[in-house]
TrEMBL record:
Cellular component terms per the entry's GO annotation: cytosol
Family label: Belongs to the UPF0045 family.
PANTHER family tied to this protein: UPF0045 PROTEIN ECM15
Sections of the chain in a coiled coil: none
Source domain of life: Archaea
Any Pfam family: Thiamine_BP
Protein source organism: Sulfuracidifex tepidarius
Protein name: Thiamine-binding protein domain-containing protein
Lineage: Archaea, Thermoproteota, Thermoprotei, Sulfolobales, Sulfolobaceae
InterPro entries membership: MTH1187/YkoF-like, Thiamine_BP, UPF0045_domain
């Protein structure tokens, strides 16, 4: 890429180049917490359906961390989130689930590392 030397000297362009460099340097993972709740099943237990959701995540090769109420998924960007949720819902429908409520929380940190491992490392007791 050729940039005119006069343009490079303007403060705005310098700021944009610095911002772009920092953004590229710290561009980390997007952490997404999801809770998939099947409604109208024949049982109050949902562990069977949670396992189905985990199977989808494993098949996609995604890193995830299950917790009691939600699961954290590590993504390169948000663009794949919709297809992941759709695939989970489609699989649940094949198991007889007619309605699914999905709760989503997104942690899109852009100033420094953002990964499941990093988050767990910094809170070790």
């Amino acid at each position: 890429m050729i940039i005119n030397d006069n343009i490079m000297r303007t403060p705005f362009v310098l700021c944009m180049l610095i911002y772009h460099s920092e953004y590229t340097l710290f561009m980390g993972k997007v952490l997404v917490d999801i809770s998939v709740e099947p409604i109208g099943t024949s049982s109050t237990s949902i562990s069977r359906y949670v396992r189905i959701a985990f199977e989808v995540l494993k098949e996609k090769g995604l890193k995830f961390y299950p917790a009691p109420s939600m699961t954290t998924i590590e993504l390169d960007d948000l663009s794949s989130l919709g297809s992941i949720i759709k695939e989970i819902n489609d699989r649940l429908e094949k198991e007889g689930v007619k309605r699914v409520v999905t709760i989503i929380k997104v942690d899109d940190r852009r100033d420094k590392e953002n990964s499941i491992d990093h988050k767990l490392d910094v809170i070790k007791l």
